[in-house]
């Protein structure tokens, strides 16, 4: 199999075969990449919201304890 692949011209190995793979599996590749990017965005939004929550809790607990209470 490897010998057959090596005997092919360079343009078949590096242009035609990847083009065929992209045509056949293009939809799958696109949906997987879309899912991964969506997951990364959701993780980033979640981390930002948690950081904001921690910031707000620390800010209000520090101001209420140093303010002498009610």
Percent in helix: over 70%
Going by helix content, strand content and strand pairing, the class is: mainly alpha
**What is the CA-CA span between the terminal residues?**
81 Å
Largest sheet: none
Q: Report the mean per-residue pLDDT as an integer.
A: 91
Strands, total number: 0
Q: Proportion of β residues?
A: under 5%
Protein name: DUF5326 family protein
Keywords: Membrane, Transmembrane, Transmembrane helix
Pfam families: DUF5326
Organism: Streptomyces cheonanensis
SSE blueprint and pairings:
Blueprint lengths: L1 H5 L3 H57 L4
In short:
The protein has 70 residues and is mainly alpha-helical.
Features:
70 residues; rod-shaped; 2 helices; mainly alpha
What does this structure look like?
With 70 residues, this protein is mostly helical. It is 89% helix and 0% strand. The chain is built from two helices and no strands. Keywords: Membrane, Transmembrane, Transmembrane helix.
């Amino acid at each position: 199999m490897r010998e057959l692949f090596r005997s092919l011209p360079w343009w078949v190995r590096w242009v035609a075969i990847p083009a065929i793979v992209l045509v056949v599996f293009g939809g799958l590749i696109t949906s997987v990449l879309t899912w991964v990017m969506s997951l990364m965005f959701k993780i980033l939004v979640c981390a930002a919201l948690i950081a904001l929550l921690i910031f707000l809790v620390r800010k209000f607990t520090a101001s209420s304890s140093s303010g002498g209470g009610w």
